[in-house]
Design brief:
Rossmann fold; 7-stranded mixed beta sheet; alpha/beta; 2 domains
Length: 251
């Protein structure tokens, strides 16, 4: 079965990520597409409330503690045809500190869910776990609002995603020394990655090409939520322009 994994994330709380995740799920289900909505907000899970589902077991925590053997068995029905949900865990402290093994197990099980669409509602911020879940999706959706703090945090979230992508590739190809060079370069010019790639292409074109392709493969979507007028809509386009210019991201 062809499957699409969506991840809804962002750099600031209160932008309406859960609302966007729930709305997208309901829309896809209304088109007769099977959907599993996963509440992966490890700090404040609330998707079940939006969908009118009681906070009961099984939930994501039951899967992560092996109380249920698979994520498929933690997905429960909702009042909406074609839409199931993996509820967030009540054990917030445990869930918020996933170790590497549990994270990989969850990522693997997400791909094995028997559905056409998986939608991850992620928590706020740029922890490695949050970034890795966001980067595992296609597409990742960044939710922002037309407020200065939300715009700034959106840019920082996207920048963290890029840094994480490049770091993972550097580790894979055992070129960790480039990571510090990248950090030094970006510290000197915090707004642009062009300088780093320019110097890398001059010193080692093969690795430069690999990393550049990895970066360009990252193509998130942007939802500007809570807009009031055309100026707010245009602000979203401005965010995309800045991401393209300074982070080499097409949105």
């Amino acid at each position: 079965m062809d499957k699409r994994i969506w991840a809804i994330g962002g750099g600031k709380g209160g932008t309406g990520k859960s609302f966007v995740a729930a709305s997208l799920s309901l829309h896809l289900a209304s088109l007769d597409r099977e959907v599993v909505l996963v509440d992966a907000d490890f700090g404040a899970p609330n998707l079940h409330t939006l969908l009118g589902v009681k906070a009961s077991h099984p939930d994501l925590g039951d899967f992560l503690t092996n109380a249920v053997p698979s994520l498929e068995e933690a997905a429960v029905e909702t009042p909406y045809r074609g839409l199931r949900i993996v509820k967030g865990s009540e054990n917030i402290l445990f869930i918020a500190n996933l170790n590497h093994y549990k994270k990989l197990r969850l990522l693997r099980q997400l791909r094995q869910l028997k559905t056409q669409n998986v939608i991850l509602d992620l928590g706020t911020g740029s922890s490695f776990n949050t970034l890795d879940f966001f980067l595992s999706a296609n597409p990742g959706v960044v939710v922002a609002t037309p407020e200065p703090t939300a715009i700034e945090n959106t840019y920082l979230f996207l920048k963290s995603c890029i840094m994480r992508v490049l770091k993972l590739y550097m580790d894979h190809y055992k070129i960790q020394d480039l990571h510090q060079k990248m950090l030094d370069q970006i510290e000197k010019n915090s707004q642009s990655l062009y300088g780093f790639f320019k110097s890398l292409m001059e010193s080692d074109r093969s690795y430069g090409t690999i990393l550049y392709r990895a970066l360009r493969a990252f193509r998130p979507c942007l939802v500007m939520n809570k807009t009031r007028d055309e100026r707010d809509v245009l602000l979203g386009r401005s965010v995309a322009d800045v991401a393209r210019k300074y982070l080499l991201i097409d949105m």
